[in-house]
Amino acid sequence: MVPHDKGRFPVAENFSADRTRLLQSLLDLSPADGAQTDEDIFVGQSARQPNRRVFGGQVLAQSLVAAMRTVDDEREVHSMHAYFLRAGDAEKPITFGVQRLRDGRSFSARRTHAYQDGVPILSMIASFQTPDGGLDHQEAMPAGIPEPESLPSTAELLGGIDHPVARAWASQRPFDVRHIEAPLYVRNDGTREPRNAVWMKTFGPLPDDPALHRAALAYGSDYTLLESILRPHGLNWTHPGMKVASLDHAMWWHRPVRVDEWLLYMQRSPSASGARGLSSGQIFNREGSLVATVAQEGMVRVPRPPH
User: Fold this and answer.
1) Which of 222, 228, 279, 282 is flagged as catalytic?
2) Which residues in the chain land under pLDDT 50?
3) Contact 288, 137 (CB under 8 A)
4) Catalytically annotated residue among 62, 127, 282, 296
5) Does 271 participate in catalysis according to the annotation?
6) 222 catalytic, yes or no?
7) Which residue among the candidates 246, 267, 269, 279 is catalytic per the annotation?
8) Distance spanning both ends of the chain, measured CA to CA
9) Which residues pair with 271 in a beta bridge?
10) Structure pTM?
11) In the chain, which ranges are E strands?
12) Which of 134, 145, 165, 270 yields a CA-CA distance of 20 to 30 A from 29?
């Protein structure tokens, strides 16, 4: 586990991709020495983005890392609930303030605020638990899913498009994401069902630190989740005038996970109304273990056609 109040995730040697190094550096927060506050303060950087907006999964994962630094080593995060309050600027550092809400016999609770320019851009509460025994069951992993090696990568799909967003998605993301159905990057050719599914993993290996893998999974869980809302309406990410933004994000970790091995991310949207859509996701490892569950509500605004 990550040492609390000090220390950083260990740096692995000989990565197979610079993008994995980038992910580790983003999750390697620095303590803010000398800060006079009742919060534990950390500082993190952002990955450059074509639109300068901080990727939501990044600030989620960094907020979680900040909370992890204040919890005893043996306690693992099991749930997180966060609200995106403002768009973050990827050109500026982010300050993370952690409040120690409770330390009980088995559970600890932390509240993290992510700040830029003196105002919060995200507010999160996370809960940690000392590992324990108990009841154990799970939903089964869906059968008949194509293997990830048989599916095209994002780089193969977007690498030939001369556009800053396409280049960023194809060559800068730290996760290899492969759609089960036709992706929604520039068209919507799949079935009009409120469902979406991808395989994902980091491009290179990560150290054997369970806390790092859980934080990295929070990072990757923000990819593609809202696509289950777009699919039934024939929308894709290039639809003229469409505006999409994550409003909140909840996550539960059920079992040990490695994000440098293929994970199946099954997503569905039970409802969309009032310019908002809800999506939930289940993340399975390749052996069929349900490692995490995710839920997110997003704003989706589509221009009305002229009368």
Assistant:
1) 222
2) 1-16
3) no
4) 296
5) no
6) yes
7) 246
8) 59
9) 278
10) 0.90
11) 30-31, 40-44, 76-84, 94-103, 107-116, 119-129, 175-179, 195-202, 243-246, 248-253, 263-273, 276-285, 290-301
12) 165
